[in-house]
């Protein structure tokens, strides 16, 4: 069977197989988690290879995490444009399709068109914002990976992707920062 | 402000998920009772559709009675969600945290209930599709977009869709908490709903931006919805007392008045039912009480303006309607007495009850004040819509009045049971107080020393 081989090669080219292992450290307070994050940075672990997992939002930068870039602000504009266009199309086309002649006034009655177009614009903007939030949050995520249910009980998780030879060092950094538990992906 | 204590996350989960993980003994009997009322109303609607609107008190002059009054009332209640959630979120008011979800959910269920009213009021509900949906179902006739019959669905459906998405997006982090706290098929359902949420900084950042961005986008929709609902009346040139330019802001402020009062009452009920004393605190009810004084006074201003605008033109027809509303007469229905009752229980009584701090912190008094506002606001809509149609003007042969019959009373009463039942069922499967919002509030809280006093403070991010 040639196809699976080709598909495998294609997949390898698209995303080369990673040898990195996920390690999850659990911390009781933000200070310990931030200290572990600093330790990882000093050990040369790239910022993109570790993430903090929390059960509520912390002020930006309080854990020393990387700055996240996103394009969410584009989505409402695209949605609003599409919504407005749909609104204009629906209102104009229905009036043209069944013209109601009223005292010599224009067939296209602008004030009511404005109302429906306004709602269409807002609906489009809101729908696209929600789509944007989901996609920019990298959701849906079908595999959770290494995780601990204690995170939603107030513990802070620090998940690191590290090469096998770095595993011991990462575990040490976490333990010395005060991790209450360190787990490795099997 | 900030009277509560900082609680551990595990306790917040335990307390706020109690309504989901444990079923109180009263829950199913209460839901069954409410369900029975809703079922009775559904049967009545069936009879009404089969027999015709003749079994109601509606007649050839007064065509908009209890159903449309109830429609506007529930649209008004739905405005609480955005008022509390969006405006307070944008204003970064700390005390919004326990109230937002309940307010947003009340918005959704109120809108759903409101939409039922005009649909059943048509007598032949299936025809709504022909009138409102942009498609030529028959004989190449397309909906007439110049009528509020098309504007209303477009505004309400936009608001309903937006509010629902707003609630769902804010629920995702809480779904993850439920995913981690449940087993069996509920866990499977919550896992699917959580969409793989793990709570990394990127997801939280977008969640926070989502709250602000969606608030900013829904606010204009919120204003437009009740404005458009008011134009159902304001655009009717033929009916005196309806054709008023002040209707849009008057309706919006009135909606906020009744909606926020409804949320306060719902919060007091939830606090009592689920023992959420640590989350829905006296300080929150107090703050909402103060807000309500301002909203109520704004509403009162528009009420007075609406009456003045009506009388100022000195048009005979308009004055006839105003006389019917305000002056005693042998008309059968004493609208003037109802007017006094309505203004008293919508403005003067509640505002007097909200003025002293001690009364704002008394949950019994606050409940009474909020119920009073909502009874009054229901009456307000009735007294605004019906006298104008009663047509006590020009030729006496066109005079008529309206006396609601049992189907209308039952259906209108059942809408309250319907919304209560939906709120209870929601609280059984989803948290009605946002867990992460409460936890975030606790993270940002601190105390600072000012001179010889230690005062509570809150960190804020910009």
List keywords for this structure.
heterodimer; A: 186 residues; alpha+beta; Alpha-Beta Plaits; 2 domains; four-stranded antiparallel β-sheet; 47% helix; elongated; B: 462 residues; mainly alpha; 17 helices
Q: Can you tell me the overall shape of chain A?
A: elongated
Range of helix content of chain A: 40-55%
Distance between the termini of chain A: 31 Å
Q: Briefly note the structural class of the backbone of chain B.
A: mainly alpha
> Could you describe the largest sheet of chain B, including whether it forms a barrel?
2 strands, antiparallel
**How many domains make up the 3D coordinates of chain A?**
2
The count of β-strands of chain A is 4
Order of helices and strands of chain A: HEHEHHEHE
What is the element string of chain B, with H for helices and E for strands?
HHHHHHHHHHHHHHHHHEE
Residue windows where pLDDT falls under 50 for at least 5 positions of chain B: none
Q: In CATH's first tier, which class of the largest domain in chain A applies?
A: Alpha Beta
- Beta-strand percentage range of chain A: 5-15%
Strand order, largest beta sheet of chain B: 1-2
Strand order of the largest sheet of chain A: 2-3-1-4
CA radius of gyration of chain B:
24 Å
CATH topology category name of the largest domain in chain A? Alpha-Beta Plaits
Overview of the molecule:
The complex is a heterodimer of chains A (186) and B (462). Chain A is α+β, with helices and mostly antiparallel strands. Chain A has 2 domains: 18-69 and 144-184, 2-Layer Sandwich (Alpha-Beta Plaits), CATH 3.30.70; 74-136, no CATH class. Chain A has helices at residues 2-14, 30-42, 74-97, 110-136, 167-177; strands spanning 21-27, 50-53, 156-162, 181-184. In chain A, α3 (74-97) runs antiparallel to α4 (110-136). The longest helix of chain A is centred in the middle third of the chain and has 27 residues, at 110-136. The radius of gyration of chain A is 26 Å and the shape is elongated. Chain B has a domain at 67-113 and 130-403. Chain B contains 17 helices and 2 strands. Chain B has helices at residues 9-16, 18-21, 27-51, 66-90, 100-121, 128-132, 148-181, 184-194, 201-234, 247-274, 282-312, 316-326, 335-354, 357-360, 363-390, 406-429, 435-443, and strands spanning 445-450, 453-458. In chain B, β1 (445-450) and β2 form a beta hairpin. The interface between A and B is large, with 59 and 64 residues.
């Amino acid at each position: 069977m040639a196809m699976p081989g080709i598909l495998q090669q294609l997949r390898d080219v698209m995303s080369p197989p990673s040898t990195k292992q996920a390690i999850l450290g659990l911390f009781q307070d933000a200070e310990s988690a931030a200290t572990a994050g600093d330790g990882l940075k000093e050990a040369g672990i790239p910022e993109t290879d570790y993430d903090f997992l929390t059960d509520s939002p912390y002020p930006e930068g309080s854990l020393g995490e990387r700055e996240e870039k996103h394009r969410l602000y584009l989505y409402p504009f695209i949605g609003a444009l599409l919504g407005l266009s749909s609104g204009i199309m629906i209102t104009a086309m229905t009036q043209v399709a069944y013209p109601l002649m009223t005292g010599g006034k224009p067939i296209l009655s602008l004030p009511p068109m404005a109302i429906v177009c306004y709602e269409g614009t807002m609906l489009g903007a809101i729908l696209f914002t929600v789509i944007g939030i989901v996609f920019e949050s990298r959701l849906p995520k079908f595999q959770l990976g290494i995780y601990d249910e204690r995170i939603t009980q107030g513990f802070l998780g620090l998940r690191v992707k590290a090469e096998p030879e770095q595993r011991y060092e990462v575990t040490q950094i976490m333990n010395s920062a005060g991790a209450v538990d360190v787990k490795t992906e099997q | 402000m900030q009277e509560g204590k900082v609680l551990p996350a595990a306790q917040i989960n335990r307390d706020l998920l109690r309504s989901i993980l444990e079923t109180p003994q009263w829950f199913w009997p209460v839901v069954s009772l409410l369900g029975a009322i809703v079922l009775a109303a559904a049967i009545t609607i069936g009879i009404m559709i089969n027999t015709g609107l003749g079994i109601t008190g509606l007649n050839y002059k007064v065509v908009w009675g209890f159903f449309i009054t109830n429609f506007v009332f529930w649209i008004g209640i739905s405005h609480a969600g955005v008022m509390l959630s969006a405006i307070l979120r944008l204003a970064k008011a700390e005390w919004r945290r326990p109230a937002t979800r309940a307010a947003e959910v009340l918005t959704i269920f109120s809108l759903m209930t409101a939409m039922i009213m005009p649909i059943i009021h048509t007598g032949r509900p299936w025809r709504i599709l022909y009138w409102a949906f942009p498609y030529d179902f028959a004989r190449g006739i397309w909906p007439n977009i110049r009528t509020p019959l098309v504007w209303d669905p477009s505004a309400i459906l936009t608001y309903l869709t937006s509010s629902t998405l707003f609630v769902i997006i804010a629920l995702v982090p809480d779904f993850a908490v439920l995913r981690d706290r449940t087993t069996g098929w509920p866990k499977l359902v919550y896992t699917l709903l959580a969409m793989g949420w793990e709570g990394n900084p990127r997801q939280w950042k977008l969640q926070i931006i989502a709250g602000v961005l969606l608030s900013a986008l829904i606010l204009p929709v919120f204003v437009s919805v009740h404005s458009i609902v008011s134009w159902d009346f304001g655009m009717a040139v033929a009916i005196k007392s309806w054709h008023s330019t002040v209707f849009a802001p008057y309706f919006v402020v009135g909606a906020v008045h009744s909606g926020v009062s409804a949320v306060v009452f719902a919060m007091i009920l939830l606090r009592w039912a689920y023992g959420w004393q640590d989350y829905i605190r006296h300080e929150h009810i107090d703050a909402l009480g103060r807000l309500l004084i301002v909203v109520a006074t704004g509403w009162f201003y528009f009420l007075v303006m609406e009456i003045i605008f009506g009388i100022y033109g000195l048009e005979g027809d308009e004055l006839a309607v105003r006389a019917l509303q305000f002056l005693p007469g042998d008309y059968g229905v004493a609208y003037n007495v109802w007017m006094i009752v309505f203004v008293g229980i919508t403005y003067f009584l509640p505002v007097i009850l909200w003025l002293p701090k001690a009364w704002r912190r008394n949950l019994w008094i606050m409940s009474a004040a909020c119920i009073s506002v909502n009874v009054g606001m229901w009456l307000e809509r009735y007294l605004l819509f019906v006298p104008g149609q009663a047509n006590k003007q020009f030729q006496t042969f066109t005079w008529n009045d309206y006396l609601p019959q049992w189907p209308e009373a039952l259906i209108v009463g059942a809408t309250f049971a319907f919304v209560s039942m939906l709120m209870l069922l929601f609280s059984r499967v989803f948290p009605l107080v946002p867990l992460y919002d409460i936890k975030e509030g606790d993270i940002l809280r601190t105390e600072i020393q000012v001179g010889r006093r230690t005062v509570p403070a809150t960190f804020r991010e910009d």
